[in-house]
Amino acid sequence: MPCPNQRSRTGFQTAFGSEGLANQLVIALYADAIFSSANTRSETQSHSGLTQATLTQSTSYQLQSWLMYKADARTNIPLGYSATAGGQQSIGGLPNGFRTEEQQARIEAQRFVTAHLQLLGELTHDVHVLGGFRQEIGVNARILYVF
């Protein structure tokens, strides 16, 4: 059973300038932290059978950076890089080998086709992964309707 957690997020976004190409380029930085509390209802297998143990997980952190080109009033093309680290787990005080360490490059295309409907397509590539599965190419799509 995983550890219960809470997330904290902060971010910053600004254009490079107010005129010309500088107004069309936007930089965005987002930082996340996931804090976990201990799970005292975990069990581990030992020679004598199942034993009650406490599962703990250290804080994991994610930093996302984006450079976005605003092609027009309805179309954005962001390039991004994300890095995540931390989240090492221990059961009964002993590390179990689970942790989070990944880096990913991304490119997106976002388009508001109407004032309320946005389409988004994203390609991703995992540059580095430790403690999980590496994805050579990822494809994400989103349809967003804003009320």
Q: How would the blueprint of this fold be written?
A:
Blueprint: E1 5-15, H1 20-24, E2 25-36, E3 39-46, E4 49-57, E5 60-72, E6 75-86, E7 89-91, E8 94-95, E9 100-112, E10 117-130, E11 138-145
Question: How would you sum up this structure, described in words?
Answer:
With 147 residues, the chain is mainly beta. Helix content is 3%, strand content 71%. It has one helix and eleven strands. The chain has a seven-stranded antiparallel beta sheet. Strands 3-4-7-8 form a four-stranded antiparallel beta sheet, with no helix packed on it. A hairpin with a 2-residue loop joins strand 3 and strand 4. The radius of gyration is 20 Å and the shape is elongated. The mean pLDDT is 90.
The proportion of residues in beta strands is over 45%
Q: Tell me about the biggest sheet?
A: 7 strands, antiparallel
Number of helices: 1
User: How many angstroms separate the termini?
Assistant: 37 Å
Structural class: mainly beta
Question: Order of helices and strands, N to C?
Answer: EHEEEEEEEEEE
Q: Spans with pLDDT under 50 lasting ≥5 residues?
A: none
What best-fitting shape do the alpha-carbon axes yield? Answer: elongated
State the strand order across the main sheet.
1-2-5-6-9-10-11
How confident is the prediction overall: mean pLDDT? Answer: 90
How many structural domains can be distinguished in the coordinates?
1
Helix fraction? Answer: under 10%
Rg estimate, integer Å: 20 Å
